[in-house]
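Q: Now give one record:
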Amino acid sequence: MRQRTQNSCHCSNTVAMILRFFHVLALLASTTTAFVGTRRGASRPAILCSRTGRGREEIFVLGASAKSKSYDECDVAVMGGGFGGLYTALTISREAKKKGKNVSVALVDPSDRFVFLPLLYDLSMGTASEGEVCPTYKELLEGSGVRYIKASFDGFSKSAGNYNGPSEAMLTPVSKQKYPEDEECGDIIHLSFDAAVVAVGATPQSILASIPGASEFAQPFYTKDDAYATREVLFQMDQKVRQGESPRIAVVGGGYGGVELSACVARRLPKASVTMMSRGPPMAGTKAEPLVEQALKNLGVHCEINNVKEIQRKESNKFTIRRSSRSDSDRDLNIGEDDLWDAVLWTAGSGPANPVANDVGCELAMSSSGRLRVDKSLRCCFKEKISDDATPASQPNSKPKLSSVWALGDCSEIVPALQPATPRTAQAAMQQADVVASNVLAKISNREGDPKAFEFQDLGSVLSLGGPNAAILGPGEDSQLGPLFVPLLDTARAGLGVADSIFAGIINSPQIDKNGDLKPVVKNLGLSLGGYGLGVDPETTPGTLSGTLSGAGRRAIYALRMPTNKQRAYAGASAFLSSALALAKEASDQIESNNDKRR
């Protein structure tokens, strides 16, 4: 009996040892790819080290659970995949290859798609495809040498402030954000780098949160998801129109976004009542102001100058908008209780996205507007007192510490401000990307001299006026390119004015329009070469072009500004096909409507 018991215990011990052995192997296997560190980071618990081909250490943590930190590294970490971030990453990789250098670039963004923001209007109206407006990073980065990390940027560790020391960013994988209780998802990625670029952009969340009811009841228009949500709202409004109602739609914001969205909505729903609410005249102070005013009037868009103070939900999914006059924000406008709205679309204002809105850490200086403070080279600055061991003023020969972080786009602000002020547009972010890429490459190549300074170059802009029509605005007359482009646009406008007259004569001729069916269709579609049908007086809008040809030019310009040749070709083809199909459908609906009236 005793012998049998001893044999049983011996067998149990053997089984336990075997299970423990396989448990250790499983831990090693599970941590090999997920928990990787470098010599540049702080000391970390490890039992196994190996050398990579680049001479860096890989540290595998034994016994760490799936909730432990994971480590990664690169030469340049770019936080944010918008215009500024994506173009910076691609430029750094491309220029490094030209110089025969192997630079590891990581692009960090929580979304798997880049969003070409100026085309969100077309996506929401169904005149552009998702592949044209929102290509995936996988497609855009293919063959570029840039590595994509799907995670959100949480901030820097304090070591990121030391120019000569290690630098590290903290990231949260998107899988962990979606499934916080999933034990197989790592909590934090510590990304080591030699240089970092912050380009997280801006969001409307802080603005919406400051207006009671705006976050709950207003539909923002800033992202791909917003565009699809807006499309759904417009579909619901279209259903109301088909039921004989005349829905009231408010568009809050009088900048580029508000004007373009108002024009597109009015074009999409001609029987709805569209009102744009802003603190001043739409596009106030720009050369587009008279053109926009007349174009919106011709589309039937009402413009109110006021301050939106609160949005409340009423019965039957309708809303009230409490607003005050521009001159006296404390005095509410006298609005009746029957002033109800079916939808509220929001484009007014934005603030820096997280983590910039909550301080990215490592003692980087912030501007008064809550953005990262940068110098003319777009390099981040330190706060005045960064630490106890900061370089004392008594040592004039000591060089001050320089951050290893650059920032650009809507999350940054140049201090002291440049004159004229840099607009917060995609055009400016793309120009800043070239400057940042040049300075970052100089830093990691140890050949820093005088850094490249940013100077905004006004190249003009384009503006959707609904449907196939748009406006092309030349550079400002005080810009370097203004004296060249403005006369060219004026000459083109004069020529297109003559073409418009010929076009109108052909359309109105009895030989072409025998039954009078074509004229109202063309008028309702607003087809033009240089402004016919838009109600725009060319004499009041120097340095601009407007009309259907300008609409085609807008899509062509955007196609050329796509980040890769493959995407440019796709965008060009998509623009032609989707615009033609949308226009054909609109014309068909017009003809069918006219036939119904005759019956």
